[in-house]
Amino acid sequence: MRSIAATVLTLVLFATYLGIGALAHDSHFSLGWALASTVFVWAGPAQIILITTLGSGATVIQAAIAVTVSAVRLFPMVVSVMPMLRTPQTKRRHLILVAHLTAITLWVECFRFLPQVPRDRRIAFIHGLGAGLVLVCLMATSVGYGLAANLSQLFAAAILMLTPLAFLFSTARNSRELSDVVALILGLLLFPLAAKLDSGVDILISGVVAGTIAYGVHRWRARA
Amino acid sequence: MSDILSRFLGDWHALLILLVAGVIPNQIWRMLGLWFGGGIDEGSELLIWVRAVATAILAGVIAEILVQPPGALANVPDWLRYTAVAVGFAGFMASRKSIFAGVACGEIVMVAGKWWLG
Q: Which among B57, B18, B74, B15 has a CA at the least distance from the CA of A49?
């Protein structure tokens, strides 16, 4: 419980989901739909893409493709969290809920909190933390849905700005290894270049290139 | 009762779209990650690479919001968004890496700047 309360990221999530609730309302989705998307999609950027593409009249196939591309980041995130949680007794089915709960915020917090949690308690810890975050976001989705018409432009812009600031600083703080720092900086710098390709998978391109270079730096340092 | 419930949920068609375009595209990657990540060792070289790629993709998500801002953020001029991030980062470093201080500094600069511009 204390971990849920003790993080600025929870506040940021709350604000982000206020925005998502308001967006769902303005795009004429039902409150039940918005809440279901929070529980079952559980990825803020994907929900924003889904609501805006569907709301702007795109077909279901177009929306599905856009969301699938944005969700690729979940794959390396889940892969890198799993080994931190496993014990010799752990079955893969024990990790299904953890995989579902893994999203940017939880992934970042795993690297901050898990080293302090005994290994055999880690899965339970993530279930608790994840469930708390989902609950906070369900409340925020409802409140945002109700407030939608009253949100000012300036407030909406401030909410959207929270995400990059909070993700940037929380990732910077978790970056202890040189490879993490290089990956973060190069990932920021290469995206504008990759965006020029306008390939639809720009983030994937800049991410794999920057991550691979960062890994190369790590290898080179290890050998020297 | 069923009337309230149907208003709350909306039509079933929309929920089906949510499943096809929202839930499945996300869960595919998570379950692939579970299947793949279940078998690799903590501390293996492959994992270091995967982590670096995940970090760089997250950096790309951050950069995308700043460079190609969505919705209301698009009304904030480029230079103001970048200044807000720079001041936020200065606050983050000055406070010995407090996320709260960094976010607060960045937000104050952006909101004050936008308010001043009108």
A: B18
pLDDT in tens, A167-224: 899 889 888 788 889 999 999 999 999 888 877 778 888 989 999 999 999 988 887 7
- For A155-173, letters b (16+ CB in 10 Å) and e give bbbbbbbbbbbbbbbbbbb
Residue B52: both structure tokens together: 């670096």
pTM, two decimal places: 0.81
- Please give the ipTM for the structure prediction: 0.84
Tell whether A192 is within 8 A of chain B (Cβ): yes
Q: Would you give the end-to-end CA distance of chain A in angstroms?
A: 44
Distance CA A68, CA A52 (A): 15
- Chain B residues within 8 A of A83 when measuring between CB atoms: 37, 40-44, 47
Residue holding tokens 């190369």? A216
What does the domain layout of chain B look like in residue ranges?
1-39, 41-70, 76-118
Closest alpha carbon to A82 in A46, A122, A43, A118? A122
B48-84: per-residue pLDDT in tens? 888 898 899 889 888 988 988 877 788 899 999 999 9
